[in-house]
Design goal:
Largest sheet: 8 strands, parallel, barrel
Strand order of the largest sheet: 1-2-3-4-5-7-10-11
Oligomer: single chain
Helix content: 40-55%
Number of strands: 13
Bound molecules: beta-D-fucopyranose
Length: about 450
């Protein structure tokens, strides 16, 4: 059925976009003065990324951005959410500015604007400059100050053309995987370090909001959060408690202080030693929208191997799953949007949503197409429930470097041949283009 956005209740101004992130698509990791990030380092650790893949070349978006912008224009995508690589602008994270790095995003932004595509820039998608990590990284309060300086640099350079800004992509996933589970850069599994990282990332967000607000006239700013319904694996008290803690770690550790001005109850005690007078006022700055990356409901269970005593549980046996094993339940989109709306009372932008496949599969990606269609329909139900959803960005424009999954996990609506770097729209891209075009 060829559903129309208008028939589903989406207003004409609803924004249909596509997302990527710097390390996952740019490549050119050692070019034009870019400094190393913690993900460059992580990729050199043996056995941490599937097949030993790295982001050295990725989709080569750094050189092929013009083709990718043309591709988006052909698909009718109205907005492009990308991230700026901090180590490209400031190879050591602070101090000397790399003009060649700054110039890349000038070119990207200008070519988007030439084609009428709205740039949505995210300041940080997990690629902390290695030099700052060597000075303590997110466990050191200083990093929040360096981040505010970096935000000011971006605001001054691009603020005349970029009005939509995201601060930090999924600080919860970045910090849980990087500092509690050790599954991502910088590969640490320590509760104290994790608690410190949470607080510094929150301070960094607040400082960046202030810099953007001061330096970009008419800026529209949001935090970008992974927020998913979080359910106990089993209905027993230990599991229910584990899910409540996991919910706070994953869903609330960042939005609660950033929007409501307080840490959630189960985490407050662990983080309190690092909170200084005035911190909450620095973190809780007015934002314009809540960016949610929605994928799937999560199931949690107690796990004594994990530093917080909880972790991922198993979804119910009869729950359908995607090719990468994530639960498939389109109604979770509506449930999630309602939860966020009721708790945070902000306009919502779905800044990521997509389907991962393991197989090279081909271009007829029916399961992805079905996933997108069903999630968009569920988002429409939330809209009808009165949730103020303003836009939707598919993850991702391109197959790309999927962190620990390397190039073996594909989320693109456009296929990338990682030998030739050729791009080919999949059925899901053709469907999305048609959906946008018909309005
Ligand atoms: C999100 C990340 C994004 C991508 C998708 C699949 O957690 O923000 O970079 O990896 O998952």
């Amino acid at each position: 059925m060829r559903t129309k956005a208008a028939d589903l209740g989406f207003p004409p101004a609803f924004l249909w976009g596509a997302s990527t992130s710097a390390y996952q698509v740019e490549g050119a990791a050692k070019e034009d003065g870019r400094g190393p990030s913690i993900w460059d380092t992580f990729c050199t650790l043996k056995g941490r990324v599937d097949h030993g893949d790295t982001g050295d070349v990725a989709c080569d978006h750094y050189h092929r951005y013009r083709d990718d912008v043309r591709l988006m224009a052909d698909l009718g995508v109205r907005a492009y959410r990308f991230s700026i690589a901090w180590p490209r602008l400031l190879p050591r994270g602070r101090g000397a500015v790399n003009e060649a790095g700054l110039a890349f995003y000038d070119r990207l932004i200008d070519s988007l604007l030439e084609r009428g595509i709205e740039p949505w820039a995210c300041l940080y998608h997990w690629d902390l400059p290695q030099a700052l990590h060597d000075r303590g990284g997110w466990t050191s309060r200083d990093t929040a100050g360096w981040f505010a300086d970096y935000a000011a640099l971006c605001a001054k350079r691009y603020g005349d053309r970029v009005k939509h800004w995201g601060t930090i992509n999924e600080p919860s996933v970045h910090s849980i995987f990087g500092y509690a589970f050790g599954w991502g850069a910088p590969s640490i599994a320590d509760r104290t370090m994790h608690a410190r990282a949470i607080h510094t990332l929150n301070l960094a967000h607040g400082g960046a909001v202030d810099a953007l607000r001061t330096l970009v006239p008419g800026a529209s700013i949001g935090g970008i959060h992974s927020h998913q319904p979080c359910r106990p694996e089993r209905d027993d008290p230990a599991c229910v408690e584990a899910a409540a803690l996991f919910d706070e770690l994953w869903n609330r550790a960042f939005p609660d202080p950033q929007i409501l001005g307080a840490y959630p109850p189960r985490l407050a005690e662990a983080i309190e030693p690092y909170v200084q007078p005035g911190d909450m006022a620095r973190i809780c700055r007015p934002v314009d929208w809540f960016g949610v990356n929605h994928y799937a409901p999560m199931y949690a269970a107690p796990n004594t191997d994990m530093v917080w005593g909880c972790g991922f549980g198993a979804p119910p046996d009869d729950m359908p799953r995607s090719d990468v094993g994530w639960p498939l339940e389109p109604a979770a989109m509506r449930e999630n949007l309602l939860t966020i709306h009721r708790r945070y009372r902000l306009p919502i932008v779905v800044t990521e949503n997509g389907y991962g496949s393991k197989s090279e599969a081909g271009l007829e990606d029916t399961p992805r197409l079905d996933y997108l269609r069903a999630n968009i329909a569920s988002m429409a139900e939330a809209l009808r429930d009165g949730v103020d959803v303003r836009g939707y960005f598919v993850w991702s424009l391109l197959d790309n470097f999927e962190w620990g999954g390397g190039y073996g996990s594909r989320f693109g609506i456009v296929h990338v041949d990682f030998q030739t770097l050729e791009r080919t729209p999949k059925a899901s891209a053709r469907w999305y283009a048609d959906f946008i075009r018909r309005g």
